[in-house]
Specification:
This protein is mostly helical. Among the domains are: 204 residues; 66 residues, Alpha Horseshoe (Serine Threonine Protein Phosphatase 5, Tetratricopeptide repeat). The protein is 67% helix and 0% strand. The chain has 28 helices and no strands. The longest helix has 24 residues.
Length: 552
């Protein structure tokens, strides 16, 4: 395969040729040194594949690692692949697995991935493993050389030579997915990936790995109602596997079942907590727990249970993050998401007194000194504080002060934008983007609120600001709740009601129901709009739905 030779030659050039090939210990992080041997994942079956290894236990660890890889638990997959390498340092698929598990590594695992990739290249050059295994190595090497689309094409081509290997199809779909357009329709490559996985599920509808692959690439689709049955089936097949419970919670909430979502996220959190207890690891090494708890709080808020949502948020915010672990995925989630969750919940609820409570919940500057330059999360804290100070000014009848503070928010955004490259270099790219977009949404919402509170002849501009906020908000991504927890359709409805156009308010809220089904903030406003639009019967029906939602 000439292309294989070319790709590996290019990768070889990326490494310093005078440097010796790293020993296998360079692949295995010190974080694993004192951990017990990883156990098999709690799923009925995974991928069946012949693994070339000198030790049967090494073979099984590779297969368990692959199952976790497809299950969405990268760190646990990494542990299994490292356990295999301890038993057979020359196992090609164990090296491939490490590279896959660390494809988007935490900063302190980048050297381990580089070592695994370097050793993988040498193993292929020495013709280690089978032709199929070397083809796996080739396809992932293409990713580092040419990107995701090329890697998808590489896996697809290899699959034609090995049509009975289902994992190659899973890889082609995973690297080939391209999301959805502004109109909500799947992009061509996304549609191809979904069709491929759907065909696999038609042949084997209860395969947990196939189900997880399909549900993961579909997770950001605008309408998930047709996929909920598959998400529930996956949870039935593997009720003790934490990532599957989290995936179910996402689908339950996105399809209008917040109470069921709360239950699913609770089960995910309990499973992750059990894993932490058994391994002796903390939250910095368990980002799944942080995600599930933050999402559980969002689901509780969606059904109007703010007391319990805020209790969850308070417990997450109380978790200590060692400064040296600030760059870990779990540490980043705690600092960027967990430390701001209470404030964001209170900003969503917006009852009298909530602005002051939200301000008080934000991290104190003195508490951040220990982190130094290890995190850029302080930009999120400062941005939220500025928004809240402006809200406070509006609530106290000081619109001029609110405008001045809004100008300060603009300057803050300009300065924060200059830190994007630094944040990316420090491994905080995703967290930074989520925060920056959220502050853009909140800035537009704030401008809309200022216009709403000003002279009537200037109130019309509020629509444009709220519309801009809605356009920036976007759907939940990365199997996490939106950073701004209030759907901006709620603000547009408030604008229409203030203008005396109850019908327009009803229309925007009904449309919002399609994206935020059974969100109590949408339903409450819809009940008000229906009553003002002269539809008391429908308003009472919505009222009953609200009571049912809150009682579940």
């Amino acid at each position: 395969m000439r292309s294989l030779v070319v790709v590996f030659a290019c990768l070889g050039l990326a490494f310093a040729q005078e440097e010796p090939v790293p020993e296998v210990d360079a692949v295995i992080s010190d974080r694993l040194a004192k951990l017990p041997e990883p156990v098999a994942p709690l799923m009925p079956k995974g991928i069946v594949m012949a693994i070339n290894a000198s030790d049967p236990k090494a073979q099984q660890h590779v297969l368990d690692g692959v199952a976790n890889l497809h299950g969405g638990w990268d760190f646990e997959a990494y542990r299994h692949f490292c356990a295999a390498l301890k038993r057979d340092p020359e196992c090609l698929m164990a090296h491939w697995g490490v590279v896959m598990a660390l494809i988007d590594p935490e900063p302190d695992l980048l050297d381990e991935r580089t070592a695994a990739l370097r050793r993988m290249v040498v193993l292929v050059e020495n013709e280690a493993g089978s032709e199929l295994e070397r083809s796996y190595a080739y396809a992932i090497a293409v990713f580092f050389h040419e990107g995701a689309a090329a890697a998808s094409d590489a896996f697809r081509k290899v699959s034609k030579s090995f049509p009975n290997d289902p994992q190659l199809k899973l890889m082609a779909a995973a690297f080939g997915r391209s999301g959805y357009g502004d109109d909500g329709k799947a992009n061509p490559d996304q549609e191809t990936a979904e069709t491929l996985l759907d065909e696999m599920l038609i042949r084997d509808p209860d395969h947990p790995v196939y189900l997880q692959a399909f549900l993961t690439i579909r997770a950001e689709a605008p309408d998930l109602r047709g996929d909920l049955a598959r998400a529930r089936r996956l949870a039935e097949l593997a009720p003790g596997y934490a990532p599957f419970m989290h995936l179910l919670g996402h689908y339950e909430l996105r399809t209008g079942h917040p109470a069921q979502a709360v239950e699913a996220f609770s089960r995910a959190g309990e499973a992750y907590a059990k894993w932490m207890k058994e391994t002796g690891l903390g939250h910095a090494d368990c980002p799944g727990w942080v995600k599930s708890e933050c999402y559980r709080a969002a689901a509780l808020a969606a059904k109007g249970d703010y007391a319990n949502a805020l209790a969850v948020a308070k417990s997450v915010a109380a978790i200590k993050v060692p400064p040296e672990r600030a760059a870990s995925e779990g540490g980043q989630l705690l600092l960027w998401e967990g430390r701001t969750l209470s404030a964001r919940l209170l900003m969503r609820r917006s009852l009298p007194g909530d602005t002051a409570l939200a301000l008080a919940s934000l991290p104190k500057p003195e508490d951040q000194k220990a982190f130094g330059k290890r995190t850029h999360a302080i930009w999120m804290y400062q941005g939220l504080a500025i928004v809240l100070e402006a809200r406070k000014a509006l609530e106290e009848g000081r619109p001029d002060d609110a405008r001045k503070i809004a100008e300060a928010l603009t300057l803050h955004g300009e300065q924060m934008a200059k830190t994007r490259e630094a944040a990316s270099a420090d491994g905080e790219r995703s967290a930074w983007i989520r925060a920056f977009v959220a502050l853009e949404v909140l800035a537009s919402e704030l401008r809309g609120a200022i216009a709403m509170g000003g002279p009537k002849d200037g109130m019309g501009s509020a629509f444009n600001w709220y519309r801009a906020a809605l356009d920036r908000q976007g759907p939940a991504s990365m199997l996490m709740p939106p950073t701004v927890l209030l759907p901006m359709q709620a603000r547009l409805a408030e604008f229409y009601l203030a203008q005396g156009d109850a019908k327009a308010a009803v229309d925007i809220l009904i449309k919002a129901q399609g994206l935020h089904t059974n969100d109590v903030e949408i339903l409450t406003r819809l009940q008000t709009a229906l009553a003002k639009a002269g539809q008391p019967v429908q308003a009472k029906e919505v009222g009953r739905e609200i009571e049912k939602l809150k009682s579940e």
